[in-house]
Design the sequence.
């Protein structure tokens, strides 16, 4: 494998753009050119590079090759000093374990870089297949100015004649409308009346920063709640495309609908327990107490011992000869006698009744 790119500085800018999403890059070299595709660790963004073979000053490759390098080490160490008219040459060692990097102008500076282990092919991200409903071309300088005034997220709203950017924060709201044919909005095409979607400002700023050294115009394609692509054509031929997942907007429902939905979610048994039945005309507050409790309270108000003998209402004196109630008092010995002993004992036959209203001895 032997690849020679005419502009070494421009090639380094391409590698720096890839570094926006990934720190290590696995390049694929085929008979058609040099290609790369990688996803950031959070799997929110992806970058894709396509360099056809005819953009190279020299291109020699017999069979497909794959090699993995550290982009940070390559851009900040190997390619940190690039001079005017430098071209870059890339070659693989015979053992495919090292990458030879040569910077050529009035002299040739050679670097040998150890390669990293290639990932398995199935670990590479799949090709995106999205039916875009909005395609616009904007200047990167104009897009950079818009993004500098925004906050955490930005909403894109497109119609047939314009593209509007809006961004909200707790204290303010920002918006800018670009019309078709203006200095910033070069073209616009939509397949729907309105196309809306929300994306992260942080990623978009990094994409624009990475693409500005490579070109002046970016093509943005998106659809409602679908990933966005931001593509820049490279010198000669080739392209570098960023992909960004959307932020899904959660629309707030009216308060009355939320309350109704909450009530509808209560289980049927719980709804029955929650409903208040109307009181009848004879119902009082006390009826809320269980009837068993009322009966218990009434029983305990006048307790009575089971073993205690019942006492007569009019007699509280017992006969001196037995335990029967006395009906009178003997006038001679002044002893109390019951009805039976008053009859059988001669001395008590003239007993005086205890109560004059009671029946006396016949």
Sequence:
């Amino acid at each position: 494998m032997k690849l020679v790119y005419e502009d070494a500085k421009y090639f380094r800018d391409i590698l720096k753009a890839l570094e926006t999403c990934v720190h290590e890059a696995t390049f694929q070299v085929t008979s058609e050119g040099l290609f790369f595709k990688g996803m950031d660790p959070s799997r929110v963004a992806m970058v894709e590079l396509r360099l056809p073979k005819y953009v190279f000053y020299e291109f020699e490759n017999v069979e497909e090759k794959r090699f993995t390098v550290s982009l940070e080490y390559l851009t900040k160490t190997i390619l940190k000093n690039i001079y005017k008219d430098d071209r870059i040459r890339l070659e693989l060692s015979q053992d495919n374990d090292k990458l030879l990097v040569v910077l050529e102008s009035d002299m040739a500076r050679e670097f040998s870089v150890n390669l990293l282990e290639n990932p398995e092919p199935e670990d590479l991200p799949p090709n995106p297949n999205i039916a875009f409903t909005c395609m616009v071309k904007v200047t990167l300088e104009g897009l950079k100015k818009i993004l500098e005034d925004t906050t955490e997220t930005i909403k894109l709203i497109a119609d047939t004649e314009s593209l509007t950017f809006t961004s909200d924060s707790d204290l303010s709201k920002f918006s800018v409308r670009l019309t078709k044919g203006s200095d910033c909005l070069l073209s616009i095409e939509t397949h729907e009346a309105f196309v809306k979607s929300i994306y992260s400002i942080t990623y978009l700023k990094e994409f624009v920063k990475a693409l500005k050294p490579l070109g002046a115009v970016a093509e943005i394609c998106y659809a409602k709640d679908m990933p966005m692509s931001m593509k820049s054509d490279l010198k000669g031929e080739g392209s570098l495309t960023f992909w960004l997942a959307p932020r899904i907007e959660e629309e707030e429902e009216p308060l009355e609908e939320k309350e109704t939905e909450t009530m509808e979610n209560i289980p049927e048994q719980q709804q029955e327990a929650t409903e208040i039945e109307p009181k009848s005309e004879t119902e009082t507050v006390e009826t809320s107490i269980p009837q068993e409790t009322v009966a218990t309270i009434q029983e305990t108000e006048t307790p009575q011992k089971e073993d205690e003998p019942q006492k007569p209402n009019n007699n509280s004196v017992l006969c001196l000869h037995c335990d029967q109630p006395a009906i009178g008092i003997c006038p001679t010995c002044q002893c109390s006698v019951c009805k039976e002993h008053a009859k059988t004992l001669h001395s008590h036959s003239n007993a005086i009744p205890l109560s004059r209203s009671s029946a006396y001895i016949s």
About this structure: The chain has eight helices and 21 strands. The radius of gyration is 52 Å. The helical segments are 8-18, 71-78, 140-148, 201-211, 255-264, 268-274, 291-301, 339-344. The domain at 1-122 is CATH 3.70.10.10 (Proliferating Cell Nuclear Antigen).
